[in-house]
Amino acid sequence: MTAVLPLNDKIALVTGASRGIGRASALALADAGAHIVATARTQGALESLDDEIFARTGRRATLVPLDLAEPAGLDTLGYALHQRFGRLDILLHAGGVLGAMTPVSHVEPGLWDRVMLVNATASWRLIRSMEALLKTSEAGRAIFVTSSRASSPRAFWGPYSASKAAMEAIVRAWADELENTAVRAAILDPGAMRTRMRAEAYPGEDPSTLPDPAEIGPMVVELALSDPGQPAGVRSFRAWKADREAPGTSA
Ligand SMILES: NC(=O)c1ccc[n+]([C@@H]2O[C@H](COP(=O)([O-])OP(=O)(O)OC[C@H]3O[C@@H](n4cnc5c(N)ncnc54)[C@H](OP(=O)(O)O)[C@@H]3O)[C@@H](O)[C@H]2O)c1
Q1: pLDDT tens readout for residues 199-244
Q2: d(Cα 172, Cα 168) in Å, to the nearest integer?
Q3: C-alpha 133 to ligand 1 mean position (Å)
Q4: What is the pLDDT of residue 217?
Q5: Which residue has the CA at smallest separation from atom 46 of ligand 1?
Q6: pTM for the whole thing?
Q7: How many domains does the chain have?
Q8: Are 145 and 97 in contact (CB under 8 A)?
């Protein structure tokens, strides 16, 4: 007899699914039974994710190559999901860019626009395109990946910090609007993880000292299954991990 998996029959849209945290989260959600709709720009990496999901679960993903800097594509995606599935159960938004590490006064206008488009505007466009589909689910769950730089900006992190702060603000406002629905929105701070973006920001760092993004998978599944009474605000992977290792000790 086949065991019923916790996310059996759930439809999960994952942005940034081609690598890093988004890819690892897509694998964890697939392992937990969800059908993955995977997006990013790099088609070959999405195909390799699909192959890995198939090898692990015997199920295929739906691949949607798109550029978050062209957010009208998210409207098209929302329409396609409506036509094909009629609902969305889980939205995990991990797609994002660092931009250049540079003093605020030196930021090129084009770079500013791109970072804001990909990290901030696309988050709002996802909400706009996916809200109705999430509301059609019995218990829609949306998870937006942030960074501690949103609340603690540092030198040379200007556009990235501003874009993540904007994303957090829009998600918090939306979460408040959802109070009387079955949909819940969470903000997830992964902390430092062994990914390409981290290596771009800290080229001299030894990646082997950082957690593998696969470690965040169980927390993502937990958030996807969370009850509607979960507290709002930023959820920290570090605190979640510390609590798992020594329950009751994290702040
Ligand atoms: N790693 C860390 O230490 C860390 C810490 C705090 C927060 N975060 C956040 O975690 C999330 C995932 O980052 P990561 O560390 O896993 O970085 P990553 O390995 O560089 O992955 C970034 C993902 O975003 C996608 N992406 C970038 N630009 C895109 C665009 N214009 N359109 C569509 N997709 C795009 C990339 O896919 P394509 O290039 O194929 O399009 C890739 O799948 C980001 O939101 C990041 O801000 C990471």
Answers
A1: 999 999 999 999 999 999 999 999 999 888 777 789 999 999 999 9
A2: 6
A3: 24
A4: 98
A5: 96
A6: 0.97
A7: 1
A8: no
- Active-site residue 160, yes or no? yes
pLDDT at 251 over 60: no
Percent residues over pLDDT 70 in the chain: 98
List the structure tokens of 211.
């957690």
DSSP-derived letter for residue 26 is: H
Residue 196: per-residue pLDDT: 98
Whether residue 198 has its Cβ less than 6 Å from ligand 1: yes
Round the average pLDDT of the chain to a whole number and report it: 95
User: Which residue minimizes the CA distance to atom 34 of ligand 1?
Assistant: 40
Residue 134, in any domain of the structure: yes
Rounded CA gap, 212 and 94, in Å?
Answer: 15
Question: CA 171, CA 162: separation in Å to the nearest integer?
Answer: 14
> Where residue 185 sits, what CATH number does that domain have?
3.40.50.720
The answer to whether residue 102 is domain-embedded is yes
What is the reported pLDDT for 2? 66
Residues in the chain: 251
For the sheet containing 234-236, what is the strand order? 62-65, 35-40, 11-15, 90-93, 141-145, 184-189, 234-236
Tell whether ligand 1 has an atom less than 6 A from the beta carbon of residue 71. no
Task: Identify whether 135 is part of a domain.
Answer: yes
Q: Is residue 220 part of a domain?
A: yes
Strand runs labelled E in 94-140: none
pLDDT band at 246; cut points 50, 70, 90: confident
Domain encompassing residue 34:
11-245
